[in-house]
Specification:
alpha+beta; 22% strand; 16 strands; Cathepsin B, Chain A; 3-stranded antiparallel β-sheet
Length: 398
């Protein structure tokens, strides 16, 4: 039975890049968590705790969901208080080319979406303070790839993980959902999503997306490939479709919280199936993932999500698993008789480390054999028994 799913995690690595004003190759750092700790002046053990305000500002002290406006205000207050002074990083922690700047309240305001006032009409543009709308590159450098979508400072992990799952299992689905037209100077895209009745609905978007005026970096979704913007444009189209906005500046704040299985359905149509790990054996979980895969790679989009509060006997922080967060399921792997679920964190970094498999994950995409190192770009393989314990549930659309 489907339950209401509202996932709330934002990407603190993306927020840190906004603070630093530069893109950071987190996976190349010896200790990326130490760097993140230095940026926010927060102890490492508190960064990824299941009740971390930095990751889940939507949760109150009593574990109740806050409104989007209160959550954004709470997180901004937290960051301003922790980071409003100049910080110094160890040279070994981050490239010398990354220079810290004074962290001002204006910098922080540019990161978090502010909702439009209640009662605003659908033809009103969303223009939060300290945001500029810019075209940051080409829609595609190549076809959509699983490593492309990276979540930004918005609690839409459910949508970014769905984008990744669709790009991996149905590589032409993203291409086919978009019809480009216009010219090189003013490109436009007609994008469709499937409504509750399974009917395609179209929206028209340009390539102007919210950026930080100081750094001119994308604030929300971005691509691993520099100069490629299809994840950002798809996120914009989704915001426009979800809000019914008729302008080219839809309200992104309305994307906060959501269901990754439903997002997959909205992207490709089909029928969603929800499964909950406490109702299944590890063998049953493994069988479902393998049934929806070919050559160990999913052929139907699959996603998983964690508990909002870590279960008894679990330590999310030490396992590098994020509470109230969505992940893409890429397929399965094995080491002899031990089976693993292959997942990707939509942050594009911070892969799980508990009961993980080493080496590479390989699969055929676009008729080419691709290998992705475990531990890079958020990709990891976790023992199916551990996945059952640490993850709340998973789903598939076909």
């Amino acid at each position: 039975m489907k339950q209401e799913i509202k996932l709330t995690a934002i990407n603190p690595f993306a927020v840190a890049e906004q603070v630093l004003g530069k893109k950071v190759k987190w996976d190349s750092l010896e200790d990326p968590e130490e760097t993140l700790s230095s940026v926010f002046n927060v102890p490492k053990k508190e960064l990824f705790a299941h009740d971390s305000i930095l990751i889940n500002p939507m949760l109150s002290e009593k574990r109740e969901l806050l409104s989007a406006e209160k959550a954004q205000a709470r997180l901004k207050q937290f960051l301003d208080g922790k980071s409003a002074k100049r910080l110094s990083l160890k040279k070994s922690a981050i490239s010398d080319r990354v220079a810290l700047k004074e962290i001002s309240s204006k910098t922080m305001e540019a990161i978090f979406a502010k909702s439009t006032p209640a009662g605003t009409s659908n033809n009103t543009e969303w223009n939060p303070s300290n945001v500029v709308w810019l075209d940051k590159g080409d829609y595609f450098e190549d076809l959509a790839e699983l490593t492309d979508p990276i979540q930004g400072g918005l609690a839409d992990c459910y949508f970014i993980s769905a984008l990744c799952s669709v790009a991996w299992s149905r590589p032409y689905a993203i291409l086919n959902s978009t019809s480009p037209y216009g010219d090189e100077e003013s490109p436009l895209h007609q994008v469709f999503f499937y409504n509750e009745k399974g009917v395609r609905e179209f929206v028209e978007v340009d390539e102007l997306c919210p950026c930080n005026p100081s750094t001119q970096r994308l604030i929300y979704a971005s691509s691993y490939d520099e100069g490629e913007i299809w994840p950002a444009v798809m996120e914009k189209a989704y915001a426009k479709w979800k809000t019914g906005n008729t302008t080219q500046k839809p309200d992104y704040s309305k994307l906060a919280w959501g269901d990754p299985v439903e997002a997959c359905r909205q992207l490709i149509g089909g029928t969603p199936t929800y499964m909950f790990n406490n109702e299944m054996t590890a063998r049953q979980i493994s069988n479902v993932v393998r049934y929806n895969s070919l050559d160990r790679k999913t052929i139907n989009p699959m996603v998983a999500w964690t508990y909002s509060t870590q279960p008894a006997g679990c330590d999310y922080a030490s396992a590098h698993i994020v509470a109230s967060h969505a992940y893409s399921i890429l397929g399965w792997d094995n080491d002899g008789s031990q089976y693993y679920v292959v997942l990707r964190n939509p942050w594009g970094t911070y892969p799980g480390v508990l009961d993980r498999l080493g080496g590479n994950y390989a699969g055929v995409i676009n008729r080419l054999w691709n290998a992705f190192p475990y531990g890079q770009n958020g990709v990891f393989a976790m023992k199916v028994e551990t996945f059952k314990k640490y993850f709340y549930g998973f789903g598939v659309v076909k």
